[in-house]
Amino acid sequence: MECVEEKFKGLSIARRSRPEEPTYLLHVAQQPSDLLAVSCSDFSIQLHNKHTLTRVGERRGHTAPLCGVAFAHGSPDLLYSGSADGTVRGWDVRRPGTEAVQVFKSDPSHVYCSFDLSCSDMLLCAGTEKVSEDSFLVFWDARKPGGGLLGAYSESHSDDITQVRFHPQDKDRLASGSTDGLVNVFDLSQGAEEEALLATCNGVSSAGSVCWSGAGYTQLLCLSLDEGLHLWDLSQLDTEEPLTIFTTCDARSLPLLEDGGGVDYLVGGAWLEETQTLLVVGGKNSGELHLMECDDRGLRLLRSLKGGHASTVRCFLWDAADEALVTGGEDAQLLLWKPGGVELTAGKRESMKSESDLRFKSRAHKKHNYQKEKKTKS
To answer: Which residues are CB-contacts of 61 (< 8 A; sequence separation ≥ 6)?
Structure first.
């Protein structure tokens, strides 16, 4: 099995895409075939060819910040997006125009901070901001175009639910993270919320992102909004062994880089099945990217990527089939990094622009930050 260092060793910029008017690139999802979907701070979803980064379409309809995008697993032409406007929308990427083919809603007071689709494509789940004294995990049957609202959990979190992540292989397993500092794991086959709650992991500070990892996806990575990192082993739930594999309250304080310094922020994590590696991506405010491995020994630098972005990176995606890395950020740039990649000159990039590539106007952006006053739990 090729080591992860070899996979990253030759990465360099192969393609670069940016709109004519700037917008933050917030999330990226990949269709199994050729498409990338990128959510933007102007509430649009941009569709790109994953090999050339040429923009091939756009979807509009949301009226508030997006909290994610995800392609269906079994029907890869179906794209889902969640938004603080209180809707999760389904789009057929084969259809021109911007009309959603599905719209999922719950209570009018609900503002969604996060959403995800189960590996079976049967369930959608969205996490809400705190409503009065409650925060909700809302569930729909994704197979019902009319909405298919199934119900909600309301007892497990006490503040905004910033992340929901279905297990990549178990359709009934769900993890949720919140600004209350807790990361909960549910077995949805148990039905009622009290019985479904399997575990509660205390991250102390506000959870920012959650990632399933490890062999069989039995581990859970949580990155906090103040750059903490926690890695838990859920296979130890029924034992007396500790769940914590590695934890740090502030990854910025770790001397991870070649010059002895640290990263300014963490972007997210991803489990690389082919090398059995938990990849954590961090960055500098100048735009430098740093690819790191995380395990029981902590964080270890694998590769630094420079000369690409000019400011904070907000999203990334590892394409195992092409051994390529896609990154997007606040400089409005979408970058494709490949082994031995050679970036096209400006003239060649211009000649590859799609004739249907439309100019679009971005709105003034204010970062949609769900972090509130920190709370600690015993």
So the answer is: 89, 98, 99, 100
What number of helices (H) and strands (E) belong to the chain? 3, 28
Residue 140 belongs to some domain of the structure: yes
Q: Distance between CA atoms of 317 and 38, rounded to whole angstroms? A: 11
Per-residue pLDDT, averaged over 310-323, amounts to 95
Sequence-separated (6 or more) residues with CB below 8 Å from residue 30: 36, 37, 50, 71, 317, 319, 326
For the question of whether the overall pTM of this predicted structure is more than 0.85, the answer is yes
Element (H, E) at 6: helix 4-9
Domain range for 202 is: 18-266
Q: Residue 225 is part of a domain; what is its CATH number?
A: 2.130.10.10
The answer to whether residue 47 is domain-embedded is yes
Q: Which amino acid is at 263?
A: V
Per the structure, the count of domains in the chain is 1
Task: Please indicate, yes or no, if residue 36 is contained in any of the structural domains.
Answer: yes
In this predicted structure, what is the pLDDT of residue 204?
Answer: 81
